[in-house]
Design brief:
By secondary structure, the protein is mainly alpha-helical. The protein contains four helices and two strands, in the order H-E-E-H-H-H. The chain has a single domain, classed as Kinesin motor domain (Kinesin), CATH 3.40.850.10. The chain has helices at residues 4-16, 42-48, 60-74, 87-104, and strands at 21-24, 27-30. It has a two-stranded antiparallel sheet. Helix 3 crosses helix 4.
């Protein structure tokens, strides 16, 4: 059984190290850093393209890439629940993932 204290402690340690994302199972939890971070640039997108979800440190890009690959593999729709201000970021990454996977299939 998971401990809420352990999860919060993990998120605090990651936040203090400048890592705002944490996995809790297949859920990506984010802590608002209240400052701009350079974690949504093209280099970061490239780092997560085509990778398995747990192959890289936790990031919303890993979630979107995984969701896109699952959708393409199963031929079924997928759903991502977003709470907070990540909507434009996830939309950007989902589009990037679709372009990447379309190019790699050629």
């Amino acid at each position: 059984m998971r401990s809420k204290t352990n999860d919060i402690g993990t998120m605090l340690c990651r936040y203090e190290a400048g890592r705002i994302y944490t996995y809790i199972g297949e859920v990506v939890v984010s802590v608002n850093p209240y400052r701009p971070l350079k974690i949504y640039d093209d280099d970061t997108i490239k780092d997560y393209k085509g990778r398995e979800m747990y192959e890289r440190p936790p990031h919303v890009f890993a979630l979107t890439d995984s969701a896109y690959k699952t959708m393409k593999r199963t031929g079924k729709s997928t759903c991502i629940v977003i709470s907070g201000s990540h909507c434009p970021i996830i939309a950007q990454q989902f589009i990037t993932a679709s372009v990447y996977h379309a190019d790699s299939a050629l």
